[in-house]
Structure formats: structure tokens, C-alpha cells
Amino acid sequence: MPSFDEFTRESKIFRDRDVLSPHYVPDILPFREHQLRELMSSLAPALMGKKPRNLFIYGKTGTGKTCSVRQVAKKFEEKSTNGKAAIIYLNCRIHNKPYRVMDKVAKTVLAGFDKQGYGLPQIYEGLLKWAGDGRHLIIILDEIDMIKHLDELVYTLTRANDELKSGGISIIGISNKTLLKDELDPRTKSSLYERELVFPSYSANELQKILQQRAELGFKAGAFTPGAINLAGAIAGQESGDARYALKILSRAAEIAEETGKDKITDAEVKSARDMVELDIVKEQIEKLPENHQLVLYAVAKLSATGSRYARLEGEGENDGYLFSGEIYEEYVQLSKKLRRPSKTARSYRSYLNDLEMLGLLTTVESGKGIRGHTKLIRLGHPAQEVMRILSKSMEGGG
């Protein structure tokens, strides 16, 4: 019978495990000075009694979007002490419908709204009255693309300002989808009057310095080699530029060292951690995808596993292993019908492909010689059977 003593004794490696978590927000965010200044510039008007513009923030996973916004939000709260401005952070995986967003906002800023039973009209009027006293409300919507009926929410919040003589309501939307705004209704887009801020991927050198910062805080002195830090940063920099990926590799490497009785993380532990973490990252990315993205990815995986229905033309050569965009769209439409889900237009489908490519889940190229006409060719970025297995569980879990 194992004993808890085995798992609760003092670690030889870790000083503070939380520092290696992707949810940890350090006091200093390296290589994000420009983005932090832009964020503060966008929010500063609310501290002076003026309405900030709406802000949409884009960037791949692990580029510091959420960390930067939460750090600036904390500083905003420290500065706003007169009750004339409020900032609220919402995770849209949880608050994924207009009512859930509005209800959470109301319960946070409105006295007496902490009970269930208020409808949207009452919440809306309550927020108008709160802001109408010259107050400014900033709502941070992290993973804003996860909100169902997003047009309805954005239009409601932005148009509320037309009814206010003083005060205002502003949105900060955070998304991995660079084309998110293009999916909004023209009426909604015209009401936004927003700024945009892009977070680029980190370079290998930047990731190495970020890992060095976290390692010094999270590990005991002498518990890691410089080579291990550099290797973890180089792997993540080459594959994705994702700081979360880099941190997971380093954290898993530390666990491997600890499990094997070592008191130092070396290159060997980092190499062992790499394969374990890559599969975890892929699984996490797939499970977080919106439903239509999952259906398109499943169509790609299924055709990759069973083979293209279209005959390959002689001389394709460099396009071997790729699928035609058109056949994937047909498979996606059939899959949607089978699951009794409404399929989206070809235009929306193309934006899903762009998002999936940005996440590294697939790659696309334009067709070369030997293909009649001009089309996009797609290839899955990971083993088809593994992707289908993850998607099957995820879609079953989502009903």
C-alpha cells in the first residue's frame, strides 16, 4: 500500500510549482512592453472620466494576451479608487452566452443583483442606470469567439452608449482568431469603433529568457542546467513560439527528474518531456475548438485516414499527402447533417481552415502544376486516428 509520505515530502527540484503554471502572472512580463503600453493607453480615458474605445486583441495561444490584460486590469483597479470606473474579467468558456455575460457583469457591479431571476431587460436597464451616473464599465471577454450569439451581445453593449449622456460601456475582446471581426454582422461591426492589438509569437531567444525568469523563481538553486532551459526554449520557438508550451515542457521535465530521483533538470529530461507535452497541447487545443472548427478538423482527419475520394491527377508530385479543400468541405457538410448541426457557408469554412492552420493543427498550400484549376490543398498536422479519437470524445462530451 503506497503512503502519502512518498508524495508530500519536500521536493529536490521545485521551490514554487505555481510559478511554472501558464496561469501565473509574473510582476514583469518580458518582451511585452509595447503591448502593455497600448493596453494602458486604451484604458486610461476611463480613469479621466472619458469612454475608452473598444479593443480587440489577437494572437496565437501562448503569446501573453491574457497575462498582459490581467496585469493591466490589476493596475487599473489599483488606480481607480473613486468608484467611477470598473473593470471585469470574464472567461467566455464559462460565460458563453449573452445572458451569462450580462448576468455576471450585473452581479459584479450592481447592488441587489446577486440573486437569480433577473431577465435581460432588467439587467440592461440596471447597467444603463449604473453607467448613467458618469461611471465607465470595461468588460474583458477572454476567448470572446466562444460566445454563442456574439453579434447580439456586442451590439447590445455597444449600442447602450447611445442611450447614455455620460459614462459608458467598453469591451476588450481577446481571441486566437484574427478573422473574428469579419464574422460579425455588418450592423454590429459598424457600432464597434474599436482598436486592434496583435501579440506576435515569441522567438526561441525570447522563450529562453522567459523560461530563465520562471526557473529562477520556481526551482531551487542548482536544480537546472542552462542547457535544459535553452533546449526547452529552442523546441518551443521552433515549433510554435508558444510560451505555455515552453513552460509545460520545462515543468514536465522537472517532474520527470523528480520521479526518477534526480536533483537536476538536464537536456535528457527536456527531450523526454517534449513528446508527452506535445500530445497534451494538441488535445487541449482540439477540445477548446468551437463546434464547427471541430467538425472541419474531423472531416480532415477522416479523409486523411480513409483516403481522398477524388482521383489524384498524374504529376501531382509535391502535393502528395494533401487533400482538396472542396472534398473536405463536402465531408464537413455531410458530417454536419449526420449530427443534425447546421453547416456554415464556404466563406466561413475558409476562415475555419485559417484558424486551424494558425493553431498548427493542419497545413495548407496552393495547388501546383498537375491540378486543374486553382485550389487549396490541406494536410493534417498530427496522426489522423489520434485526432479522431480526441474529437470523438470531445464532441460526445459536448452533446
Your description of this structure?
The longest helix is centred in the C-terminal third of the chain and has 22 residues, at 267-288. The chain is globular and about 65 Å long. Strand 3 (136-142), helix 6 (150-159) and strand 4 form a beta-alpha-beta unit. The protein has a five-stranded parallel sheet, with helices on both faces. Strands 6-8-7 form a three-stranded antiparallel sheet. By secondary structure, it is of the alpha/beta class. It has helices at residues 5-8, 33-47, 65-79, 98-109, 120-132, 150-159, 186-192, 204-218, 226-239, 243-259, 267-288, 291-306, 325-338, 346-358, 384-397; strands at residues 54-59, 85-91, 136-142, 168-175, 194-199, 323-324, 362-366, 376-380. It has three domains: 33-199, Rossmann fold (3-Layer(aba) Sandwich); 208-287, Helicase, Ruva Protein, domain 3 (Orthogonal Bundle); 290-397, Arc Repressor Mutant, subunit A, CATH 1.10.10. It has 15 helices and eight strands.
By CATH, the architecture of the largest domain is named 3-Layer(aba) Sandwich
Q: Provide the number of structural domains.
A: 3
Q: What percent strand?
A: 5-15%
Kindly report how far apart the N and C termini lie.
Answer: 39 Å
The CATH class of the largest domain is Alpha Beta
| Total beta-strand segments | 8
Question: What is the H/E order?
Answer: HHEHEHHEHEHEHHHHHEHHEEH
Q: What Rg do the Cα atoms give?
A: 24 Å
Structural class: alpha/beta
| CATH homologous superfamily caption of the largest domain | P-loop containing nucleotide triphosphate hydrolases
Write down the overall mean pLDDT: 88
